[in-house]
Amino acid sequence: MKKVIQFIVLIFAVIIVIHACKKDLITTDANAKLSFSADTVFFDTVFATIGSCTHKFKVYNNNDKKVSISSISLKNGASSFFILNVDGVAGASHKNVEIGAKDSIFIFAEVTIDPQNTNTPYVVEEKILFETNGNSQDVDLVAWGQRAIFHKAPTGFSAFAIGNEFWNSDTPHVVYGIGVVDSGKLLTITQGAQIHFHGGAALYVNKDATLKVLGSKDQRVVFQGDRLDPEYEEIPGQWQGIYLSPLSKDNKINYAIIKNGTIGIQADTVNGSNPTLILRNSWIRNMSQIGLFGRGATIEAYNSLITNCGTYCAAFTMGGSYQMFQCTIGNYWEGSASRKTPALIVNNWFQAASLQVIPRNLVKADFHNCIVYGNITGEVTLSKDDGAAFNFLFDHCLLKVDPDKTTTTGAEYVSCIINKDPNFNSTTNDYNLDNGSPALQAGDLTTVTANFANLSSDMEGTTRTDGPNPDIGALEKQ
Q: Which of 29, 32, 268, 433 is the most buried (most CB within 10 A)?
């Protein structure tokens, strides 16, 4: 019996030794991945002066054998704002870091920021890269780079609520994620405010909520991305856009520049008799898809430019009610060789998920003293379904149309100029009319007098009532 007990003890000892040896073995299995306590580490401190902040996170080895991480490094290397501390050693990169079986280690990440340095991005991003047995994994680091007011979602969420708030001009605002103006709330953005959106960020106005943008001629409100490098100044697609939900109400945007996003403004569905949006004295440009997108909405626009978008500058779809006064819609998108879509499209239908075409009444789509032009053959498309009303009017407008597809001799075209170049000073950044433009003094003065408060001068303050007739388009020649 004593020998049996000794034998059993020996067997257990051997098992323990084997198990201990197994734990000491370093696995080379490509499937032996790491896991992390956080996918993204946020440094929420807003610095008033040069300073640093440190956060930590854990790296787990959930495998039955030890792992050796061949490389832990910062993507931006020595130029990074961050530095790592791994096992008490600081640096931008670390080699052959071992983690025992079913064990973990801490990594400390430190960021140093000078918020007064205007060359620093508003949002400073970095990646920690991990290489283990041929596997590549990463953890994101995000810090606020310049002094600004940051609006972001709580950890683990992609959206955040906005209540009754004023976003003022004293400090730039940076939106990280989806900002939702909550139901029944009002977001007021005052003159001169600078609103920056991180990649993928957007502003969404919910049911019964309202957005009011109160810019002025000398202090416009600017909506754009948060990359401040000169090469990003006019790059489209840097953020998502402004979305006015179907039951948002009384949205007003005055003296705004909205640029470099995916969709400038999307307004959905008629909301009673109130306009979904009144747009005045604003410039929407460089959108990778659509500048002004109405989907069964009620939109009024005065003295506004919508230019250079990847698909449509203005798309008024699914019926609705649209009125444009003294506006310029010009599409000279740099990728014009691949652009097949016109600057302006108007229709009275939509296609359901079942692919069934469903008509919706187009109550009106009226354009007064407007320019619609661009660098493809036809810049106006009118798509009508006979199952719903389709009411439109071009009154004293300059239009570029494909004569094989669009007839402009009907009663819907009043004193229009067809297929004559408006001669803009520049088709990238200056839509003033050059000398000899056919649009000069070709507008209807009654349009101005009937909407005198909105149209007596253009967005630059140039009066429209000095001559016998106003110019066509958003900008009056001085």
A: 433
The CA distance from 462 to 447, in Å, is 16
DSSP β-ladder status, 362-368 and 283-285: unpaired
* pLDDT, tens digit, 9 for 90 and up, residues 243-280: 999 889 999 999 999 999 999 999 997 555 567 899 99
Going by C-alpha positions, the residue among 291, 266, 130, 132 that lies closest to residue 202 is: 266
Give the pLDDT of residue 227: 85
The whole-number average pLDDT for the span 45-65 is 88
Using the Cα atoms of residue 97, residue 100, residue 101 and residue 107 in order, give the sign of their dihedral.
negative
- The 3-state secondary structure of the chain reads CHHHHHHHHHHHHHHHHHHHHHHHCECCCCCCCCEECCCEEEECCCCCCCEEEEEEEEEEECCCCEEEEEEEEECCHHHCCEEEEECCEEECEEEEEEECCCEEEEEEEEEEECCCCCCCCCEEEEEEEEEECCEEEEEEEEEECCCCEEEECCCCCCEEEECCEEECCCCCEEEECEEEECCCCEEEEECCCEEEECCCCEEEECCCCEEEEECCCCCCEEEEECCCCHHHCCCCCCCCEEEECCCCCCEEEECEEEECCCEEEEEECCECCECCEEEECCEEECCCCEEEEEECCEEEEECCEEECCCCCCEEEECCEEEEEECCEEEECCCCCCCCCCCCEEEECEEECCCCCEEECCEEEEEEECCEEEECCCCCEEEECCCCCCEEEEEECCEECCCCCCCCCCCCCEECCEECCCCCEEECCCEEEECCCCCCCCCCCHHHHHHCHHHHCECCCCCECCCCCCCCCCCCCCC
* Choice between 267 and 234, residue whose per-residue pLDDT is larger: 267
Of the candidate CATH numbers 2.70.50.60, 1.10.3720.10, 2.60.40.10, 1.10.10.10, the domain formed by 35-144 belongs to 2.60.40.10
Nearest CA to 58 out of 38, 33, 30, 73 is that of 38
* pLDDT confidence bin for 229, thresholds 50/70/90: confident
In the predicted structure, residue 202 carries a pLDDT above the cut 60: yes
Q: Where are the domains of the chain?
A: 35-144, 149-455
pTM: 0.85
For 365-417, write each residue's pLDDT tens digit.
Answer: 999 999 999 999 999 999 999 999 999 999 999 999 999 999 999 999 999 99
**Closest by alpha carbon to 248, among 179, 178, 298?**
298
CB atoms within 10 A of CB 39: 10
**Contact in structure between 196 and 122 (CB atoms under 8 Å):** yes
| Max Cα–Cα distance, the chain, nearest Å | 122
